[in-house]
Amino acid sequence: MRLAVIGGDGIGPEVTAEAVQILDVVAPANDVSFTRTDYDLGAERWQATGEVLPDTVLGELRDHDAILLGAVGGRPNDTSMPPGLLERGLLLRLRFELDHYVNLRPSRVYPGVPTPLADPGLVDFVVVREGTEGPYVGNGGSLRAGTPAEIATEVSLNTAYGVKRVVRDAFARAQRRPRRHLTWVHKTNVLVHAGALWARV
Length: 201
What we know:
This protein is an alpha/beta fold. It is 36% helix and 24% strand.
């Protein structure tokens, strides 16, 4: 297995270093071997070179089986970096170019691990989000920026194709879990048109 590691910014390099240490132990115990390639992508690279994700690096990343990405974004209150530059130019570009449409958010409380919850009970669920449509497409713009009459829009785009494939993935994951239960969380009373599309699918 070929693993690409992008430490990124802030706490990212520390987190990915710990994750790689865990992989170094877990992989051999499960008869998995991997080679690792580290990539210097993030705020520091952009500030030094003006590059976020060069096409040549994207080509190399395509040849990997998995990408371990830490965190992206400049330091808080750093006004030298345009808002969203790294998120769109690195994180979202990887999602779009590699068609990584399933955004998984697992949540589990492990015995013996401290938690701020007074009574964690059985916390074990996975949130499945669509990661390449909705607000992620970047549709929108502004008029009269910086004036009292400024107008700004963010357009959420959903396609039947995109909704169907992520819903299929969510159902498949639910079938493999002990409770075999799926909950659709929505805001159809506000997101009327997109909500109707999701409901029909």
